[in-house]
């Protein structure tokens, strides 16, 4: 079954057409890449899927449900989580709490049980904490669990964002430039992490990236955007030879 | 280990019981000066107000400036109950119920304030809450049933040290439980990054409604205690000046901190009393103290930090001290 099916998605910022007539189908457990030069509408696409913006027209189906009019937290509850291009962890919360709060859609206790510190609250809270620890351990962040997220170095904050996204138990994760600002060693570590997300947690990944080594290393399918228009799509090895893609990245030849 | 664990379990009711007994014996004996007792009660009431506003302004990072309005609603509601609805012959036992009802009436008003907060933040929400404060004050001034601008008379002195202690303790315990639950973490995540919070599944609407309601509930409780301590309330007691006073205590003590609320309320209330001999100069010295505090400790005395006792044992390891905003 199609996990995510986008058809005819168009979005305007005033008179600027940021995304036009975008089509995309992501299957369960797939790693799908979106590339394109700066300003081509990649992050806008993520913002449309997670309802930061409302699409001007078009439809986004997730697990067969129309999500274009849903609120962001409901979309998350359905199973879409994301990371951000400019890292947005909750700096004032501890690393552990960042992962715990991401389970907001999962815990069962109601407000009165929390206010009066009842047994059902403590039991559920212990479960939430345990799950957070498990995730932090598998991404080697447990040694910093009690530190405030704002004190972590850049690379660890990137990983914390991924852990936080996984804590919401998604079936699709949107990664917005996970390897931005990383060197080759760090990129190959990130490649392993993205593979892990799919293989260990069974989560489909939609990834935006400029680092071609990451894109070519892990993506099973690719879409190329330029000025909001899809200019190419398909298998990575075909896309890299596509004339339009080369033109978008390198510019067209000047004719004398 | 088991003994320690069960001792910890009993700590909360034990402190509550001992505190109530102690405050009861103090107010029934002549050991403590009546004036000192009165100041202590004001500290307690101000603490409830400060902590409840801290929930919205400190933990959630919104800027609500009309907190006295919730105090007013709690004060008037409870006063009507003790004066008009139930006669005193039913005994002072009706009082806690009146206080709780006052709190609930305030919580309903808090629901009204929560709604604009879905759309607007910061300065704009400040103006909405300011307007709400003015509206309610004018309504009270123009309703004869509530005594109009003359104020509401004939309230019995039902607030005692025991009740102030009881409700302060409950406010502290309940709000602490809230802050250290996933709802409380949701509140802080809204302060840190609201868009990221909602995308990560935090039901920000629900969290905001709950926070505003909890905050106004306790402000209402404090208002009810205040009304039955002063035995007289008028719309003027709940104007912008009163709201400002609560704001000062929050920022003096420290945002996002229960310890800060304790300190802010105590320092402000006690200092105002200590400076009383200075007469009119009091209102020059006190603002100066605030100005210097804001220069040297801009986050308040214990901003974004917490006193160990106020943190649940399971959460104690979290290092709050390194954080710089």
Write out key terms for the chains shown.
heterodimer, A: alpha/beta, six-stranded mixed beta sheet, four-stranded antiparallel beta sheet, 10 helices, globular, B: 325 residues, mainly alpha, ABC transporter involved in vitamin B12 uptake, BtuC, 12 helices
Work out the helix count of chain A.
10
Number of helical regions of chain B: 12
Helix content of chain A: 25-40%
Give the CA-based shape of chain A. Answer: globular
Based on CA atoms alone, the radius of gyration of chain B comes out at: 20 Å
What is the highest CATH level, the class of the largest domain in chain B?
Mainly Alpha
Chain-averaged pLDDT of chain A: 92
Portion in beta strands of chain A: 15-25%
Tell me which CATH architecture of the largest domain in chain B applies here.
Answer: Orthogonal Bundle
Q: How many beta-strand runs of chain A?
A: 10
User: Could you spell the SSE succession of chain B in H and E letters?
Assistant: HHHHHHHHHHHH
Taking Cα atoms only, what radius of gyration of chain A do you get, to the nearest Å?
A: 19 Å
Fold-level CATH name of the largest domain in chain B: ABC transporter involved in vitamin B12 uptake, BtuC
Write the element-wise H/E pattern of chain A from the N-terminal end onward.
EEEHEEHEHHHHEHEHEEHH
Classification by helices and strands of chain A: alpha/beta
Order of strands side by side in the largest beta sheet of chain A?
6-7-8-3-9-10
């Amino acid at each position: 079954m199609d996990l995510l099916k986008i058809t005819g998605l168009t979005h305007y910022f005033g008179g600027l057409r940021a995304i036009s007539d975008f089509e995309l189908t992501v299957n369960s457990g797939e790693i799908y890449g979106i590339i394109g030069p700066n300003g081509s509408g990649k992050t806008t696409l993520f913002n449309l899927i997670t309802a930061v913006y409302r699409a001007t027209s078009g439809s986004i189906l997730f697990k067969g449900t129309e999500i274009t009019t849903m609120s962001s937290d409901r979309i998350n509850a359905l199973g879409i989580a994301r990371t951000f291009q400019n890292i947005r962890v909750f700096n004032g919360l501890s690393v552990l709490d960042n992962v715990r709060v991401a389970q907001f859609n999962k815990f069962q206790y109601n407000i009165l049980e929390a206010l009066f510190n009842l047994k059902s609250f403590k039991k559920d809270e212990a479960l939430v904490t345990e799950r957070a620890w498990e995730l932090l351990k598998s991404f080697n962040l447990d040694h910093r669990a009690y530190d405030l997220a704002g004190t972590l170095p850049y690379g660890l904050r990137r990983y914390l964002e991924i852990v936080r996204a996984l804590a919401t138990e998604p079936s699709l994760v949107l990664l917005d430039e996970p390897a931005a600002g990383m060197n080759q060693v760090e990129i190959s570590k990130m490649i392993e992490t993205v593979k892990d997300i799919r293989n260990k947690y069974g989560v489909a990944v939609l990834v935006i990236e400029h680092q071609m080594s990451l894109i070519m290393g892990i993506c099973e399918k690719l879409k190329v955007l330029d000025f909001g228009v899809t200019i190419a799509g398909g298998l990575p090895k075909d896309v890299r030879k596509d004339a339009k893609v080369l033109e978008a990245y390198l510019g067209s030849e000047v004719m004398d | 280990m088991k003994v320690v664990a069960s001792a910890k379990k009993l700590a909360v009711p034990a402190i509550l019981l001992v505190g109530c007994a102690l405050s009861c014996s103090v107010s029934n004996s002549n050991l403590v000066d009546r004036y000192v007792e009165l100041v202590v009660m004001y500290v307690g009431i101000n603490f409830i107000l400060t902590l409840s506003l801290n929930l919205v302004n400190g933990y959630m990072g919104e800027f609500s400036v009309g907190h006295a309005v919730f105090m007013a609603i709690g004060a008037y509601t409870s006063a009507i109950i003790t004066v008009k609805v139930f006669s005193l012959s039913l005994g002072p036992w009706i009082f806690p119920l009146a206080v709780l009802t006052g709190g609930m009436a305030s919580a309903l008003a808090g629901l009204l304030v929560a709604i604009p907060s879905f759309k607007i933040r910061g300065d704009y929400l400040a103006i909405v809450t300011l307007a709400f404060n003015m509206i309610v004050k004018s309504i009270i001034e123009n309703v004869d049933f509530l005594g109009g601008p003359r104020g509401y008379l004939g309230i019995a002195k039902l607030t005692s040290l025991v009740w102030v202690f009881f409700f302060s303790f409950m406010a502290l315990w309940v709000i602490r439980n809230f802050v250290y639950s996933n709802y409380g973490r949701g509140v802080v995540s809204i302060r840190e990054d609201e868009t990221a919070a909602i995308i990560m599944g935090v039901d920000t609407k629900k969290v905001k409604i709950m926070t505003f309601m909890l905050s106004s509930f306790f402000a209402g409780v404090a208002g009810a205690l205040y009304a039955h301590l002063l035995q007289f309330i008028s719309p003027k007691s709940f104007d912008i000046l009163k709201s400002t006073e609560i704001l000062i205590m929050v920022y003096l003590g420290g945002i996002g901190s229960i310890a800060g609320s304790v300190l802010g309320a105590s320092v402000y209330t006690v200092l105002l009393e200590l400076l009383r001999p200075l007469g009119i100069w009091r209102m020059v010295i006190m603002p100066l103290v605030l100005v210097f505090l804001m220069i040297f400790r801009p986050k308040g005395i214990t901003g974004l930090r917490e006193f160990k006792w106020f943190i649940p044992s399971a959460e104690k390891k979290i290092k709050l001290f390194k954080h710089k905003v």
